[in-house]
Amino acid sequence: MRTTIKATAEPAQLVLPDVQLTADLTVPDDAVGVVLFAHGSGSSRASPRNRAVAEVLHRHRIATLLFDLLTEGEAMIDESTGHLRFDIAFLAKRLVGATDWIGTRALVAHLPVGYFGASTGAAAALVAAAATPPEIVRAVVSRGGRPDLAGAALPRVRAATLLIVGGNDRDVVRLNENAYSRLTCPKELVLVDRATHLFSEPGALEEVSRLAAEWFEHHLVQ
Predict the structure, then answer these.
(1) All domains in the chain, ordered by first residue
(2) Are 50 and 35 in contact (CB under 8 A)?
């Protein structure tokens, strides 16, 4: 049986220095932290996978900010060229801007921050975490991500980092293992048995959600 959690949900506009981005902010009563989602290639804040994870986080009293890293115009260009989804520095800058915006919202300004990244969004989350004080961003979770694309930022990440990969997603497993070896922060690499890249197998996404919720709960509440 699912636990019913009272929460405040509101659409929002992230007004950053160079752009305005559409977002959904959900804050459970007595929230203990807030997690910003950085989606991956061709995805958006409407991603059913990210929303499924967000629902589980809400039950653990963790607020979520799901937002589009790209504007509609940028997303249309990226659909044709694919270059923005691999511009990790650009995406990380957007994520840092969203983190600054969180600090201006009364409901969540006092909460420790975590990042949940998927695909190339995981690299952006790690680069953003490396650029942000650890007392603000305390934890990062990557789902089927490309942390290897964070490159030279990996050894500078101080936030506790969990890499979750499908056990059958062999190429991405190898890339995550290489990135994991370069991380010097508290870290863990978990392979979800028999899962592939999108964790579409029965129970796979539920396992991702459980692992993420436990990681954030442990590392955000100190």
Answers:
(1) 7-220 (3.40.50.1820)
(2) no
